[in-house]
Design a protein that fits this description.
Layout lengths: L5 H15 L6 H8 L2 E6 L6 H10 L2 E4 L5 H4 L9 H12 L3 E8 L14 H18 L4 E8 L14 H6 L3 H12 L4 E6 L7 H15 L6 E4 L2 E3 L4 H12 L4 E10 L3 H12 L4 E6 L26 H11 L3 H10 L16 E2 L5 E2 L39
Bound molecules: ligand G3I.
Length: 400
Amino acid sequence: MFRIHQPLRALLAVPFLLGAARAQGTLAEAAAKAGLNIGMATSSRQLTGTYGNTAKAQYNMFVCENDMKFQSTEPSRGRFSYGGGDGVYNFGQANGQRLRGHNFIWHAQSGWAANVNGSRDEMLGIMKTHIDSVGGHFKGKVVEWDVLNEITDDGNGNGLRKSFWQKAIGDDYPDSAFFYSRRADPYAKLYYNDYGGDGVNSKSTAMLNLAKKWIQNKVPIDGIGLQCHLSSPVNKQSISDNIKRFGEIGLRISLTEIDIKNGTTQDWTNLMGACLENFNCTSFLTWGIYDGASWLGQGCNCLLFTESWQPKAAVQALIDLMNNADPAVVAKRKEFAKEPIIPTLVYPRRAPVRDRAGGLLPAAAVPLFPAGIGAVDALGRNRSVAPHSPWAAGLSIAPR
Ligand code: G3I
């Protein structure tokens, strides 16, 4: 599944091994065995020198920390800029690494869009143009898109955050964002990403209820991003239970923005353990690579490499844990995470759910696209089929 260039990885790992005389193997090699994407947040400007070599050797996925956000990709209305994302994608392509997209719709870092104060129709139009353009540019290049970021309110009974999107469009704005995204890039898995709902708590329950409603309404969501901005100690059981309950409704989980303030080796293995024991946990990404550059500031002791680029003991512990993952769960994860030959709206996914009229829908995949015969790309995906209209059925609003 992962196109990892083993000899190149081994070569690149040499300085890392010499410097630390500690880690056996790499995070990326062990993650491939466990069927996991293992990644980190970065920018193309950072991917040089020791930083770049470590990124090449240790990871199989990247996410832009800031460069694919609204204000970076559409700095003024209708003018798009993709250099930051392209740079990280090209770096990863050269090394067989994948790209996660962060993000289309958020209340922050949205530049001019936050000040439009437009009508529902105008804001839907802005949302659609943005997702069409950015999603279209990265079509087939991004394997997971955060369609929505941080949309659940922390107070307010865990309703939707009163963002400028919600205020102008209404509570069904997430539905439109997902539909626009599926049309813009049918090959990407679509996520709702949020913080503070990593373990079982009222916020993650609110997130779960939102996801259940979307699935019932045939809104195309594939997964939930649990950001995991954590502090020591990390509660493995609670996070594992939370991942599991999203798996029960057919959703993938990505741990998307991990940092653990004052994290111990045990904290890191608790988090990785919670992921590994659930087949639906498919990606594990840290928010940065080393303590020298974290949004939390130097001295956070929150990432896997020290400020002087030494791998912490947690690196070897994670490698060992991934290498020894339960083979039955690994096999199930690899099956679950497979790219479909023809993209499908897998509704109602793995479990039967009730449709909006109360009918019980079986746990079978309903094809989103007509079965087209065409060339299959390197990832086994058929790119010859085009989106068509049936996915509009069941929408709370019609996609524009
Ligand atoms: O690029 C400009 C630079 O030109 C300017 O000189 C400098 C002056 O302050 O600012 C730079 O931009 C900063 C940018 O990071 C790049 O470093 C912004 O001020 C700063 O606000 C921005 O912070 C980012 C933050 O999101 C914005 O909300 C952090 O790097 C980034 O780590 C953080 O990431 C978020 C996720 O997207 C969502 N979840 C929470 C996470 C942490 O807050």
